[in-house]
Fold this protein.
Amino acid sequence: MIEVIPGDPASFMLGINAREDTLAALRSEMGLDQGLVVRYLDWVSGLLVGDFGNSWTYKTPVSELISDRIWVSLPLAIYALILSTLIAFPAGILAASRRGGTSDVTIMGATQLGVAIPNFWFAMILVLIFAINLRWFSAGGFSGWDNPLHGLKSLTLPAIALALPQAAILARVMRSSLLDILAEDFIRTARAKGLTRRQALWRHAVQNALIPVLTIIGLQFSFLLAGGIIIEQIFFLPGLGRLIFQAISARDLIVVESVVMLLVFTVIMVNFVVDLTYAAVDPRLRNKACAAGSP
Amino acid sequence: MRRGLAIGTFLTLVFVGLACLSFLWIPYDIETLEISNKLKIPNAQNWLGTDHFGRDIFSMIMMGARTSIAVALLAVGIGIIIGVPLGLFSAARQGSFLDELTMRGNDLIFAFPSLVIAILITAVFGASAVNAIIAIGIFNIPVFARLTRAAALPLWERDFVMSARVCGKSDARISIEHILPNITNLMIVQGTIQFSLGILAEASLSYIGLGAQPPTASWGRMLADAQTLVSIAPHTALVPGLAILLTVLGLNLMGDGLRDFFDPRIRVGRT
């Protein structure tokens, strides 16, 4: 689809004053003179063996470009996911266990704000406070993984900016899922056999409330990976997001296609893994799957 | 929770009101640049200060509200106009080939990270408000199609649908006359939520330069302009961000409030 769009990459690379024969030569070098179907089949068969093709502007294999950048984008998404879970779980559990109390109202109010905050604006505010005024972090750039601590530090502000809105959503899901479980009969039974509210919550309710939460975490990972595109721009991080932007403006279509394919593939894989973890969390599903599998 | 609905409606009305008012009156023309008056902090003349071109930020917020609301409203419109009929049809012919096709098509759109595809669409077809609307609208279609189908399926089992059928009404007429009115509330609530997501998406797209183009004012681009000035003139970044935050917050509160209002059972279940 992206191939059919207006804007000839060859004429873009050579500028508007290029001679017609130079253009033709470059087009044939890039394979643009071949038919759409040929180019598409070429690309798809390349994907299957891990060959994304060569970037038109960088003149290097796309797989190399991606494998350089993924070491920024992937750690950023994972870092943000960990932060979001670390914030959301306690907040959601606390809100559900003190339902209607001050902490519940405060946490729910905070999550409403968290959902409504545009994360790129939040990122700017973080830079203003922690990088410009307090000078705890650098305002952007990435120092590489040679020193893992420095690398982690330069990813901290971006990860917080990405994580907070997601944490707000996750905390709400955790709370409402936990409230549903706390209304179940087996919690009453647990309380009747002498467990305190807190014991019943931790031993029986939390694990049972995890399924909807896991679904959301799975969805969020893909969102974090994609949402990183904008955040990477703000913090000047050399990740996939910047790669895709540079590629879009240079009409380096093969890079754009490959990054999008990679993101979609990751999203599908993550959702698949989440489906598998359901079985780990809920033994009933495991048994059902075994029963269906055995003759 | 009624309080949430009241606050939400109030915030929403303020921003819709500002957008409507901007058609009749704005404090200063935003297309005249007055560099000598640049980066003023909020004062009596410029209530919210001025930006790096000396434009009045309050006026730009008003014009930006117009852009945000127009883009988000039209994007929700695309979702409803295409998604709801698809969902109604799928529910009426559950299990048919077209039902399968619609639902798998929905799955396909869901599998793509929406932001990436929105960036791709606007980058490929050129950055403009219209392309932003289309890019955001496409992702509203499966949302409404799924919701409509899920809400309509149980209705098809109800007695009033059976009696309509006995009267000789076609599936299409039953869908429009009996199913649709019963799911309207749900659509209003989801519409409010998608509207707020649309405002966020529009802001993100215009922030990275792929939304409405100058001289059209847009909150996202105001933030992009402010990014390099944040250390010397923080108000240029704070004001548009707060405008987005308050509008989205208002719409979310209103959506939650409306859901409870339409369905009192939820209020008992989980407030």
Chain A touches chain B through 39 residues (CB under 8 Å).
